[in-house]
Amino acid sequence: QAVATELEGAMAANRIAMQFQPQFCCASGAVVGAEALVRWSHPQRGLIAGDELFRIALRADLARAMSDHVIAQALMQARDWEGGLHLSLNITAADLAAPDFPDAVAAALCASGFASERLTLEITEQALVHDLDGSAAQLTKLVDMGIRIALDDFGAGFCNFRYLKKLPLHFLKLDRSMVEGIADDRRDLEVLRGIVALAGALDLAVIAEGIESEAQRNAVVREGCFAWQGFLGGKPMPPEDFARL
Ligand code: G
Ligand code: G
Ligand code: MN
Ligand code: NA
């Protein structure tokens, strides 16, 4: 109860805020959008990252409320971006399993005026394992609204290829561990090549995450990834800083 009260207080006091990490087009080098990453600035504990915040929210039975709060906030901030930039939002297993989730997203889009075609939702394998058919049905509802879907952290978990066959996906987001060695390890590079080829055959665009060096960026550009994201291009930053960029 204490935790729930604290979380509700933090939402009301705007201590739960979004940061945005830029994503760059491999072909042009231009910023094409940003991934929203939530931060809880806790009066005693300092900044708490998204994964921990959602673990706490889940225990307090506030995971859905927190997600709705975060989605609304990100959409409101992204609607003023110039140039039709895209917004990428992480969602949880609880979101995907909630029957009213597609309607909640539709309402948030409507309230913000942000076009659904500019929104990508990122899901991870953990969000899918419980009920693949149910997940596919939920994702199809979102895709029918014009939203795009990214499979996040690809390569970090079990990489169940059934997900690629059964789900309406648009993007594969390569986990940081998949790009770490590509500039200096032959095997890492060949794994990347194989995945990019597979993604291409399935009409999926590849986004490389965790790019920290020019050599890594050059490799993902050369190998045909669609976009990249990482500390080389910018860390997650407050909305004012992203708007300036
Ligand atoms: O940048 P950061 O350390 O916050 O990210 C840690 C993890 O928290 C990431 O795996 C990310 O998917 C998750 N996360 C960050 N922001 C959000 C968010 O707004 N919603 C959800 N569901 N997860 C998030
Ligand atoms: O949603 P996801 O699990 O992909 O969350 C992205 C996480 O990766 C966030 O915690 C973000 O801060 C972090 N991140 C983004 N770019 C980089 C990078 O270049 N290097 C490292 N080490 N972490 C990154
Ligand atoms: Mn993500
Ligand atoms: Na990731």
TrEMBL record:
What SUPFAM superfamilies is this protein classified in?
A: EAL domain-like (SSF141868)
The UniProt entry's coiled-coil ranges are none
> Cross-referenced Pfam families, in alphabetical order?
EAL
> What name has this protein been given in UniProt?
EAL domain-containing protein
Q: Which stretches make up the EAL domain?
A: 1-245
